[in-house]
Amino acid sequence: MNPIEPTHHIATLLEALPYIREFHGQTIVIKYGGAAMEDPALCEEFARDVVLLKYVGLNPIVVHGGGPEITDYMEKLGLPVEFRGGLRVSDEATVEVAKMVLIGKVNKEIVLRLGRYGQPAVGLSGDDGNLFSVSRRTAPDGSDIGFVGSIDRVDVDVLNHIATDYIPVIASIGPGADGQSYNINADDAAAAVALATSAYKAIFLTDVAGWLENPEDPESLISQATPDELRAALDSVEGGMRPKLEACLNVVDGGVGSAHIVDGRVAHSLLLELFTDAGMGTKIAAGQ
Q1: Where in the sequence is the domain holding 54, given as residue range(s)?
Q2: Strands 144-154 and 132-138
Q3: CB within 8 A of 72, min separation 6: which ones?
Q4: How far apart are CA 26 and CA 271, in angstroms?
Q5: pLDDT in tens, 16-74
Q6: Per-residue model confidence (pLDDT) at position 3
Q7: Cα separations (Å) of 218 from 208, 209, 210, 269, 282?
Q8: CA 257 to CA 31: how far, in whole Å?
Q9: Is the sign of the CA dihedral 111, 114, 118, 120 positive or negative?
Q10: The domain that contains 79 carries what CATH number?
Q11: Residue 178 DSSP label
Q12: In angstroms, rounded to a whole number, what is the distance separating the alpha carbons of residues 237 and 211?
C-alpha cells in the first residue's frame, strides 16, 4: 500500500468533520433523477451515500422523478411525448403511465435499495396521507399542459412522523381537489418539500455539471450565485435547467439555507458537494 494513502484518507475525513457537525440533525431534501437513477452503478452509490447521511445524523428526504422511464413506457404504448418549458404535457393517459412508473416501479426500487444498505425507507406519493394538495398549473409561457400540478400544501406531520425512523422516498405525483391525479415536476416537488420542512439544504441531481453560463460549454460552470443574480438571468435560461433554477430560487427565497445543482453522473457527487471545501456543481445562497 502506498504510505501516502492513509494520510490522504484521514485528511478527507477531517475535512468532512466540520460539515458533519454543522449539518447534524438538519433536514436535507434531495431531488433524485437523471443518470443517477439510470446507471446501475450510480444507483448503488446514491443509495449508499443517502444511508451514510442518515447514519452521520442528517435527516435526508428523497424526492424523485423518473422522466426517462416514463418516456420509454409512453413510446412503447404509442403515446405522444411532448414538453413545454421543460414540463411534460400530461393528458389522462400520460398521468396513468406516470403513476405506474413512479409509484409502482421507481419508488419501490429506491426503497429496496436503501434497505439493502442498512437503512429502512418508506415509499410515498403525494396521494399518501394527503401528503400533497395540488392545483393545476400552466407552462411558463401560459399555455395549457394538461394534468400537471403545482403543490399548494405539504403535510409536514406525515413527513415528520416517518422521518424519525425512516428515510422518506417521495414520488412526484399528487391529487387535486377534483380527485384527479396530477403529474408534478420533481424539481418543483422537491422545492415544496424543502420549504414545508424548513430544510437546511435542497440538492437537485441532474445530468450536467451544474448551471452553465453557456449550455454548449461544459467549462462555463457558475459555481456560486445569489438569488438576485439568478433572478436577473432566469429569463435567458431554457429547457430542463429552467425548472431546476426556478426551484432553487423558490427555496432560497422561502428561507432554505442554500440550494445546489449537482452532477448526478459523478459517483458520490452528493457527498462531495456536502462534505468538501471545493464542493461541486452550483450553489445558490444569499450573501455569496
Answers
A1: 24-284
A2: antiparallel
A3: none
A4: 15
A5: 888 888 889 999 999 998 878 888 999 999 999 999 999 999 999 999 988 889 999 99
A6: 52
A7: 8, 7, 9, 17, 13
A8: 16
A9: negative
A10: 3.40.1160.10
A11: T
A12: 10
